[in-house]
């Protein structure tokens, strides 16, 4: 018996999301789920806002893992700027989506032609709408606003600097589209991800602690409080505990449009490396 019974650290795991077989399997599962999406928009003759929204959901479930939320994660391809390797017709894009590109890493997606049409509509809508804010913003000024006037670091951290109270934003540009970043800042209540929801506990001594839910089990709950401290509570001793509204303030009117564009372009630049 050697004393070294600790298993060796697992190394050599796939680190790029693009090639991870695990991710690929998730993607296939997502594709299967897509086929069963409600057929509500099936009768739509034209690509309405609902159809584009449908396309967005398929894109988020199936495509964004490889192409990225803004569609620019594969070299030479940038959906948000309408940049393809060559000009495709809608029919060609439809075929690429359903059949993939044989001999490349672009897989077929088993969706009906009508559903692929909605994804195409979504891709086209991306290049007409997105990128406006980031394109006019200056990420260097944005970082200064983030650290200074915006006081974003009182709640968020980027690359180890700032507070752990709110979600870490170090790679937020890889996870969210520009329009989503902008919405988070001007309209934080509009959409809060389940894992980002705020949690509030009231102890039997009457102390109220609000923060980010880190973990909970049947008996205890762990919260990062607004001072950034990890607090653990015994549920049986709490007067109240549960989710509450986000403490993220709206910056509508507090940042002018140029400042907003600057902050958004800074956030969009924070990517996985
Ligand atoms: C497993 C990763 C992966 C998934 C999932 C994926 N793609 Fe791709 N896609 C690629 C790669 C890699 C290429 C480039 C292939 C090549 O080398 O020509 C590509 C190419 C494309 C192209 C051609 C772009 C051009 O300029 O030639 C389009 C359009 C496209 N993908 C759309 C989609 C859509 C829409 C979805 C979701 C329904 C999707 N892809 C899902 C990896 C993926
Ligand atoms: C008082 C604390 C606080 C301040 C100040 C604050 N935020 Fe937030 N922020 C939060 C919390 C909590 C969340 C998570 C809940 C939510 O999504 O609203 C959040 C969410 C976000 C998200 C969405 C994250 C995601 O995963 O989608 C972005 C982007 C963001 N904040 C950017 C900013 C920027 C930029 C500033 C400064 C201009 C800022 N925040 C200031 C607390 C704060």
User: What count of domains describes the coordinates?
Assistant: 3
Give the overall shape.
Answer: globular
Q: Give me the side-by-side strand order of the main sheet.
A: 6-5-4-3-7
Shape-level CATH architecture of the largest domain: Orthogonal Bundle
Instruction: Tell me the series of helices and strands, N- to C-terminal.
Output: HHHHHHEEHHEEEEEH
Helix-strand makeup class: alpha+beta
Q: Tell me the radius of gyration.
A: 22 Å
- Give the integer mean of the pLDDT values: 79
Bound molecules: heme C
Tell me the β content.
5-15%
CATH level 1 class label of the largest domain: Mainly Alpha
Can you tell me about this structure?
It is a single chain. The chain is an alpha+beta fold and 273 residues long. The protein folds into three domains: 21-130, Cytochrome Bc1 Complex, Chain D, domain 2 (Orthogonal Bundle); 134-191 and 251-268, Cytochrome c-like domain (Cytochrome Bc1 Complex, Chain D, domain 2); 198-244, SH3 type barrels, CATH 2.30.30.100. It contains nine helices and seven strands. The strands form two sheets. The chain has a five-stranded antiparallel β-sheet, with no helix packed on it. Strand 4 and strand 5 (220-225) form a beta hairpin. Helix 2 crosses helix 4 (113-129). The structure holds heme C (2 copies).
């Amino acid at each position: 018996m050697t004393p070294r019974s600790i298993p060796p650290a697992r190394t050599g795991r796939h680190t790029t999301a693009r090639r991870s077989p695990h991710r690929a399997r998730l993607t296939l599962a997502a594709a299967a789920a897509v086929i069963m999406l409600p057929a509500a928009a099936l009768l739509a003759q034209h690509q309405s806002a609902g159809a584009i929204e449908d396309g967005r959901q398929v894109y988020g479930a199936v495509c964004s893992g490889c192409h990225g939320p803004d569609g620019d994660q594969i070299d030479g391809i940038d959906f948000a700027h309408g940049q393809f390797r060559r000009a495709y017709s809608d029919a060609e894009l439809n075929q690429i989506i359903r059949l993939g590109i044989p001999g490349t890493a672009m897989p077929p997606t088993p969706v009906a032609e009508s559903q692929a049409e909605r994804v195409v509509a979504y891709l086209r809508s991306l290049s007409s709408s997105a990128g406006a804010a980031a394109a006019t913003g200056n990420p260097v000024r944005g970082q200064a606003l983030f650290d200074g006037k915006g006081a974003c670091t009182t709640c968020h951290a980027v690359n180890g600097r700032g507070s752990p109270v709110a979600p870490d934003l170090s790679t937020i540009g890889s996870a969210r589209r520009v329009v989503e970043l902008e919405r988070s800042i001007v309209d934080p209540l509009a959409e809060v991800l389940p894992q980002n929801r705020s949690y509030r506990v009231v102890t039997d001594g009457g102390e109220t602690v609000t923060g980010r839910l880190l973990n909970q089990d049947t008996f205890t709950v762990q919260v990062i409080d607004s001072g950034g401290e990890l607090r653990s509570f015994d549920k049986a001793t709490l007067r109240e505990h549960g989710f509450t509204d986000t403490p993220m303030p709206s910056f509508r009117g507090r940042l002018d449009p140029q400042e907003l564009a600057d902050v958004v372009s800074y956030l969009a630049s924070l990517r996985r490396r």
